[in-house]
Amino acid sequence: MTRSAAREIAIQLGFAATGAGEDPTAAVEAFFEPEHYASLAAEDELYSERPSKKDLDFIRRSVAGVAERREELDGLIGRYARGWRTERISRSAAAILRQAMYEILYMPEVPDAASMDEAVELAKGYEDAEVVAFINGVLGGFYRGEVSHADAPAPQESALDASPEDKDE
C-alpha cells in the first residue's frame, strides 16, 4: 500500500469517526477487522490491499492525533481560510486540511511538501477546482505563517504544480 492510500484511508476514517461521534481508536480497530476490511475491497479499490504494519501505524497515529488536536487544527484552518466563512468549508475539505496540518506539525518523518501535495491531490477526488485551490491556498498560508523558517527551504509554492517525484509513496 502506498503512503497516499494510507493517508486517504486515515482521512476517511477520521471523517467517519468524527461524523458518528465515535472514539477514533475504536473506529480504526473495528474498520480493520479482517472480515469487515475484506468486504470493502469489492466496493472500492482503495481497500484492495491490506495496510502493512507501518501503514497501519501511520493510519492509527493520524486518526488519533487529528482527533486529539482537532480544536487546534480547526483554529489554524479558520486563521488561514481568508475569504471563506468557516461554515462554507465542506467536511471533506476540513478533514483533508486537518490531516495535512497534523502531519506537518506532528509527524516530522513525513516531508512537509509531501503532506501538502498529497492533500491537494486527494482533494481533487472529492472537491471541485475552487475548493482544491482553496485547500492549496490555506496550506500555503499555514506553512508560511506557522512553519517556514528563514534557513529552511519552503515546499513548492503551488502544490498544484508538484511533480510526482515529490510525493512520498
For this entry, give a set of tags.
169 residues, 2 domains, 65% helix, 0% strand
How many domains comprise the coordinates? Answer: 2
H/E order of the elements? Answer: HHHHHHHH
Major beta-sheet overview:
none
Q: How many strand segments?
A: 0
Unreliable parts: 153-169
CATH homologous superfamily label of the largest domain = NusB-like
Q: DSSP helix count?
A: 8
CATH-defined topology of the largest domain:
N-utilizing Substance Protein B Homolog, Chain A
Q: What is the SS-derived class?
A: mainly alpha
Shape: globular
CATH architecture of the largest domain, by name, is Orthogonal Bundle
CATH uppermost class of the largest domain: Mainly Alpha
What's the gyration radius in Å? 15 Å
Return the average pLDDT rounded to an integer.
87
First and last CA, distance: 9 Å
The amount of helix comes to 55-70%
Strand percentage, roughly?
A: under 5%
